[in-house]
Design a protein that fits this description.
Elements lengths: L4 H12 L18 E9 L13 E5 L1 E10 L3 E4 L8 E5 L9 E2 L2 E7 L5 E9 L5 E11 L8 E2 L1 H5 E6 L4 E6 L7 E9 L3 E7 L3 E2 L9 E4 L3
Parallel strand pairs: 1-2, 3-5, 12-16
Antiparallel strand pairs: 1-14, 3-13, 4-5, 6-15, 7-10, 7-14, 8-9, 8-13, 11-12
Amino acid sequence: MLMTRTAICLIALVFSASVLAGKGGNGNGYPSGAHYNLNLIGTGDKDADMKGNKGHRIFVPLYGNAKIYLQEGDFRVIDANGTDSDGAKFQLPAADADCDGYSDYSVYVRELGAPGGSAVMTTCLEDEFGEVYCSSESVELERKKGKSTARNVSKELLTVLIYDEDRDRWIRTPLFGDDSYGYLWDYNNNGLRLAQLRFYDEFTMIDVDPDDGSDYEYNCS
């Protein structure tokens, strides 16, 4: 699946139109430069106002599970309400459009808000029968006291790593790398008020072998 010059220009335009981080960074762990910002807001109020904020937020239960369904396209929140049974919907570009093992953009996360609370965020595949297969790799979030520092979670949020027992091998699939699947983020919240995701126009190696002696395959076409 090759990325056209037009697609590359569109992604660059999306980043350049986003909020710019301060020159040289500001010590919060995020890179400098253009980025798309997405806030995952934990709430106990299912009647919270889902409008406003220019579409850069998704509401999830303060305690419990939320599904954030993913579709391919320019960065955009489609459905901000992750507190109902239908889940939220978020649009983002393919993780590795030319299938070279490096993401076309990178994702960073940090926890904000009052200290306390944790969450686990996992990328999953959904087959045509509605069966969901979640990655063996997750992002563990915890709001501790003191300053929160961002870290690169591109591998965990842009790929799904599953062990196929029938083929006796690990298989890693980047977002939208196999169009026979649907994709989603599974978000299990235990009191975390705010997780801030930022998407940057930089590469991260995501074709990473678990290196446990098993066979490994990068499923991208």
